[in-house]
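During the reporting period the student researcher (J.K.) took over the structure-prediction task from the postdoctoral fellow and processed the backlog of single-chain submissions. One of the processed entries is reproduced below for the supervisory committee.
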Amino acid sequence: MVFINSNLNAHQIALELAPTDRDALTLRYSIVKANELRSPIQFGQGTRLEVSNGVPILVAGVTNKHLADDVFVEYTRQVNPNTYLTAGFSVSFPGAGIASIVPSKTPAWTGGFVNVVVSY
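J.K. obtained the following structure tokens:
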């Protein structure tokens, strides 16, 4: 998730498949919305100067609650009883709230990871 703040509301649905005892595949879909309009989103992001009737106005946050739709895919493999390998990929599609504060087309955000956990 790109956003970390108390001014957020995320609804998530997940589907987990376990094709074998050692493999797990998880798909998550989230809708991220702002709780309050015109309120800062994470560390003041979304704060900008707008002009209304020739008067500059400092605006914080967004004017549309829909911030993003996130899709996250994660695969976990139990290599042995003490070792797990996890890989994941996510893409976040900007919603109307983000698109309204960016002057140009807002691209999707992507990310990925690979993680090995060894426990003793």
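The committee noted the following: The radius of gyration is 19 Å.
J.K. will present the remaining backlog at the next meeting.
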